Amino acid sequence: MAPPRLTIVDAALSLPIRHDHTLLQHCLAAELAVSRSCRNGNCGRCDSSLLKGRVKLRNGNTVEAPATIPLCIAFALDEVEISNLPLIKLPIFWRCQWQNSRVLVLPAGRQTPPHEGDICAVLFEGSVELNEIAEVNGRNIVLLKPAANTPEVNSVSLITIDAEHEGQYTLWREYKSQRQVVWQGINHVTARSAQTAYQANTCKGSYHIIHDASTKKP
Ligand code: FES
């Protein structure tokens, strides 16, 4: 018998269900950038519509369609159809002023800041450092650990990323006929987000994404 499937109406996707994976994990594995934060059913950021089927929540409750469910703690019990996923509009990045190795300052203006606890990547010219947002205080973004690098200019880009950001893509930088690996072993969503942030911020050189299985280098 064919395994039950998860249908994601918004993305016109049908995926085989893994009963040991939450619906959020299914979406992320399909590279759908679903908004989330707590991953324990409390913040509501991943809430979506259950159109068909039944799910079991991590607290043991069974929920039947139609309902609104937190994808992060929902396991499919049978064929399931979901919609109204809170998809993040990618790419999201912030060009920040460099105050010191732990404090970046958002530009003035109405810009939604990242959230405390978000995993982030600080994008230097030609290299990337992973970090976490420890605190958001007005326009100040406080990083959990001091950055090891210092930017060439007085600003850096920041992107928020998934805990599951690993994958089979590499971001390359090409500058003055030199090619260098900027970030390796990431998924496509993360690579796109970083590439867009670099290119939007008039960094020197051009940035290319390749699949690691590809022998074709940029
Ligand atoms: S990530 Fe917070 S409720 Fe799902």
UniProtKB/TrEMBL annotation:
Output the Pfam families linked to this UniProt entry: Fer2 (PF00111)
Q: Which CDD domains match?
A: fer2 (cd00207)
* Residue intervals of the 2Fe-2S ferredoxin-type domain: 16-64
InterPro entries, sorted? 2Fe-2S_ferredoxin-like_sf (IPR036010), 2Fe-2S_ferredoxin-type (IPR001041), Beta-grasp_dom_sf (IPR012675)
Q: What is this protein called?
A: 2Fe-2S iron-sulfur cluster-binding protein
Species, as recorded: Zhongshania arctica
Q: Lineage from the top down?
A: Bacteria, Pseudomonadati, Pseudomonadota, Gammaproteobacteria, Cellvibrionales
